[in-house]
Design goal:
The protein is α+β, with helices and mostly antiparallel strands. It folds into two domains: 95 residues, Fumarylacetoacetase, N-terminal domain (SH3 type barrels, Roll); 227 residues, Fumarylacetoacetate hydrolase, domain 2, CATH 3.90.850.10. 19% of the residues lie in helices and 30% in strands. It contains seven helices and 21 strands. The strands form four sheets. Strands 1, 2, 3, 4, 5, 6, 7, 8, 11, 13, 15 and 19 form a twelve-stranded mixed sheet that branches. The protein is globular, with a radius of gyration of 20 Å. The two termini are 40 Å apart.
């Protein structure tokens, strides 16, 4: 499944739970009423939001898979639900929100060795031995989440805005002290993550020995969808939560970054084991991978810039997860 949170372009723009099929967004609640009438599919409850779906668990998710399968051989643009609304909409005709608009928490790890080495070299240092001993993370702001197509305000206190090309997983099952080899059972799905960074502010914070904080917490963007692990099975490696999928970034249409998820040093299994050590992870918690090698202007320019400017277009693409596009907006005031 490829879950999205979307709205019709009307005056209300009320968020709805949907699923992607090719270039269509399926309105799952409307699809249920269609399937009840056309196929006598049982009327199981459908949650109105992504967070409620996470808390309902496997039974609700299995029902939604059955519902999507029931559309085989049907044109979702022509099929109508009980309200006479169409079951499907072209993705260009809807508004996509962040697939999980309000995560319960946001931990971002530092798991790609190439990025860690590049950052250390810029600072004239070696990679700390401790990095090879434990996966480390920081907390970011779950209340500053942006979705596909949204404008990212340029923070007023920065002159050095950067993108970071990452993948994130969404926790779907409550767990504590989760073994790395069992961690995939707790992952609801994966999405593209842009961990926007104010490099000048981050540099000051890190010099003090604390952070990042204001260098990061003004914006994170996710999307376009949350893709369940079964969709990626053909690209799986022998490490839990690691897939052989290319990752690229483009600025104003020009490719700037290229890497691969499989090059990650710490798997999502290892990250989840670390995050859940003596702590309970909850449905809706988000865990980021950290930046793939070459996945930021910091690396590409040895920390000197040039940085992103007002109006720049940034596209992050991960095979099978889609394309996350945002534009840099005007400086915040």
């Amino acid at each position: 499944m490829r879950y999205v949170t979307f709205a019709l372009p009307d005056s209300l723009r009320k968020p709805r739970l949907g699923a992607m099929r090719d270039d269509l967004v399926i309105d799952l609640l409307t699809a249920r009423t269609w399937a009840q009438g056309a196929l006598s599919l049982p009327a199981e409850p459908i949650p109105p939001t992504m967070m409620e779906l996470l808390h309902l668990g496997a039974a609700a998710q299995d029902y939604l898979r059955e519902l999507m399968n029931s559309l085989d051989g049907t044109d979702p643009l022509e099929a109508k639900g009980a309200s006479r609304e169409a079951v499907g909409h072209r993705v260009t005709d809807v508004v996509l929100y962040p697939p999980l608009p309000r995560p319960t928490s946001l931990r971002d790890f530092y798991a790609f060795e190439a990025h860690v080495k590049a950052g250390a070299a810029i600072r004239g240092r070696e990679v700390p031995q401790e990095w090879y001993e434990i996966p480390v993370f920081y907390y970011s702001n779950p209340n500053a989440i942006y979705g596909p197509g949204e404008s990212i305000p340029y923070p007023s206190y920065s002159q050095a805005l950067d993108y970071e090309l990452e993948v994130a997983c969404v926790i779907g099952t409550r767990g504590r002290n989760i073994p790395a080899k069992q961690a995939e059972q707790y992952i609801f799905g994966y999405t593209i993550f842009n961990d926007w960074s104010a490099r000048d502010e981050q540099r000051k914070e890190m010099a003090v020995g604390l952070g990042p904080a204001k260098g990061k917490d003004f914006a994170s963007s996710f999307g376009p969808a949350i893709v369940t692990p079964d969709e990626l099975a053909g690209s799986a490696t022998d490490r839990p939560g690691v897939f052989d999928l290319a990752m690229t970034a483009r600025v104003n249409g020009d490719e700037r970054s290229r890497g691969n998820w499989k090059d990650i040093h710490y798997s999502f299994g290892e990250m989840i084991a670390r995050a859940s050590a003596d702590v309970t992870l909850m449905p809706g918690d988000v865990i980021g991978s950290g930046t793939v090698g070459t996945g930021s202007l910091l690396e590409l320019t040895s920390g000197e810039g040039p940085w992103l400017q007002d109006g720049d277009s940034v596209e992050l693409e991960i095979e099978q997860l889609g394309i996350l596009h945002n534009q840099v907006g005007a400086r915040a005031t």
